[in-house]
Amino acid sequence: METVTFEQVVSRGCGIDVHKILLVATISGEGIKTETREFGTVTRSLTELKDWLLENGVTHVVMKVPVFIGSLFITSWNPQQSRSGLSMPVT
C-alpha cells in the first residue's frame, strides 16, 4: 500500500463526536499529549470544554453529529474567536 503524506496546517486540533447527552472530545497536536475527555451538552459543560481547549492552545475543532440527532454534518469552530462558548447548529 502506498503511503500518502500531506503538509500539516493545524498544529493543535480537536475532534468532537456529538451525541444527544454527551460529547467525546480528543485533542492532539504539537507539544500536547493526546487526550480524550467526555463532556455533557448543557451550557456549563460546553463552557468547560471551551476552557479545556483554550488551556491547551487548540486552534481548530471538527465536530461530527450523527444522523439521529439532526442532519449529518461536519463543521469547524475556532475556540479563540468564540466569545460565549460553543454554538452547534443542528437542522
Explain what you see.
With 91 residues, the chain is mostly beta strands. The protein has one domain. The chain has one helix and five strands. It has a five-stranded mixed beta sheet with strand order 3-2-1-4-5, covered by helices on one side. β2 and β3 (32-39) form a beta hairpin. It is globular, with a radius of gyration of 14 Å. The N and C termini lie far apart (39 Å). Mean pLDDT is 79; it is low at 83-91.
One letter per element, helices H and strands E, the order comes to EEEHEE
The portion of residues forming beta strands comes to 35-45%
State the shape: globular
Number of domains: 1
Total beta-strand segments: 5
Q: Approximately how much helix is present in the residues?
A: 10-25%
The rounded distance between the terminal residues' Cα atoms is 39 Å
Mean pLDDT: 79
Q: Which segments are poorly predicted (pLDDT under 50) over 5 or more consecutive residues?
A: 83-91
Number of helices: 1
Order of neighbouring strands in the sheet with most strands: 3-2-1-4-5
Q: Please state the CA-atom Rg, rounded to the nearest Å.
A: 14 Å
Instruction: Assign the structural class, choosing from mainly alpha, mainly beta, alpha/beta, alpha+beta, or little secondary structure.
Output: mainly beta
The biggest beta sheet reads: 5 strands, mixed
In short:
The protein is mainly beta and 91 residues long. The chain has one helix spanning 43-55; strands spanning 12-18, 23-29, 32-39, 60-65, 73-77.
Provide the descriptors you would attach to this structure in a database record:
5 strands; disordered C terminus; mainly beta
